[in-house]
Amino acid sequence: MNIIDKYIDYLVDNSAPDKLLWNKEALTQGKAPSWNYIDGCMMNCLLELSNITKNDKYYNFVKSYVDYFVSKDGSIKGYEIEKYALDDICASRILFSIYEKEKDPKYLDAIKFTYSQILNQPKTKEGNFFHKKIYPNQVWLDGFYMVMPFYTKYINMFMNRDYSDVIHMYKTMDSHMYDPKIKLYYHGYDESKESFWANKVTGLSKSFWLRAEGWFLTSLVDIYEDILNIDSRAYIKELYNKAIKGILKYLNKKENMFYQVINEGKREGNYLETSGSSMVAYSILKAVRLGILPKSYKRIGLKIFNGIKNKYLTEKDGTISLGGICLVAGLGPENNKRRDGTFEYYISEPVVSDESKGIAPFIMAYLEVKRQENENRN
Question: Which secondary structure element, helix H or strand E, spans residue 199, and what is its range?
Answer without folding.
Answer: none
